[in-house]
Amino acid sequence: MKKVLIITYSWPPSNESAVHRVLRLGRWLPKHGWEPYILTPRDTICARKDYGNIIFSQKYFKNVKATDSKVSEFIVKLFEKRNTNIIAKITAAILYRILVPDVYIHWVIPGIKDGLTIIREHNIDVIWATLNPYSTGLMAAYLAKKTGVPLLIDYRDPWTLSRIFKISYLKQRINKFIEKKMLEQASAICTTSKPMSELFVTNGYFNKDRVFTITNSVDDELQHIGQYPIHKTFLDSTKFNITHIGTFYGDRQPFEFIKALALIVEKMPDLRKKIKVNFLGNGKYGDIRNYCNECKVEDMFFFEGYIPYSDSMIILSQSDLLLLLNGVAKHNEIYIPGKLFDYLAVKKPILFIGNGQPTEIISELNIGESTDQDALKISQTLLKMIQNLKTYHMDEHKLKKYSSLTISKQMVHILEKIKK
Questions:
Q1: What pLDDT, on the 0 to 100 scale, is given for residue 283?
Q2: For residue 160, which phi and psi values (nearest 5 degrees)?
Q3: In this structure, what are the phi and psi dihedrals at residue 28, rounded to the nearest 5 degrees?
Q4: Cα angle, residue 49 at apex, residues 338 and 78 outer, rounded to 5°
Q5: Residues in the chain with pLDDT values less than 50
Q6: pLDDT of amino acid 8
Q7: Backbone region of residue 306 per phi and psi (left: phi > 0; alpha: psi in -120 to 50; beta: other values)
């Protein structure tokens, strides 16, 4: 059996997006003749944890090496204290600004040491590094150069081509230099959407014939479909439940949706008591709550912070309509929000507000509607969906195209292609 070293900063109990990508694709690799070896840090700066994922990591991944060091332990503890300790908060802010390429650089040196041991002792055929954080790519590039093992860089988000996260001019120049050196060691790169792949090609970052698209995927078992009783429900079974689970940030905000709902109840007051909107999983809702009050629809909304992943999936499955947002700026076209694949797993109608590839996927699977970030258009589309909800039926056959088994075959194709 061939062997792949998967380098990922996030691993259970973390509930970051990288965890789901690696679990869903990696679990099927042995079926295709590839044995996965995981390299990850023991201590991580992690905002969201969900211990339920540990069950699957232990079930499907037998070769996991968690690196550790005194520096990593110190950095992680510092960031854990930043919300309660002013010195830790200031220090963390300074580190965010000055560390290159990012604050996760703490695990590169111990990761290189353990990575070299794994590669040499187990005769690794390919290295697969999933980014971000981008310091992971530096580690992988060094390992590839040192050992001659082919390297696949898996971009979940672009690095210096990103237009979402702003950094200083100097740090951007340094990062561009580092990214160029990293890509010189890569045999191929893959991204999570076609537009993102095109971004790397059109900007001259990598040769077209070595750039691949591997979307995220659907996996019923790992998405807890129908497996566990829910601990707590926030839904009102007497109402039409519209649910969004996840964080709002940057220009990915629900303000136009809120305004659209206000337009609807202004014209159809009887719907005020029939619709409930659930915003779950976001840390802060201050501005959103205030806007609901301004639009006089605060009584139609329910807000809750982070909830366990398995519970969130069951809440999605019990909702009537699922809300998916992308940013208003044109550069958001390159992103397919990871939660789309959680929405697809529960097979409930989706209202997508934004642009990009989610529109194609939702239309292809006949599972919802898409519209622009415009309150009037949103109100018209939402009313259409409420009144014709039964017309949206997931195309089960086409959904297999996005199953983790199918997508893992695409990943294996890349591994086979770059393996020496």
A1: 67
A2: -75, -10
A3: -95, -10
A4: 115
A5: none
A6: 95
A7: beta
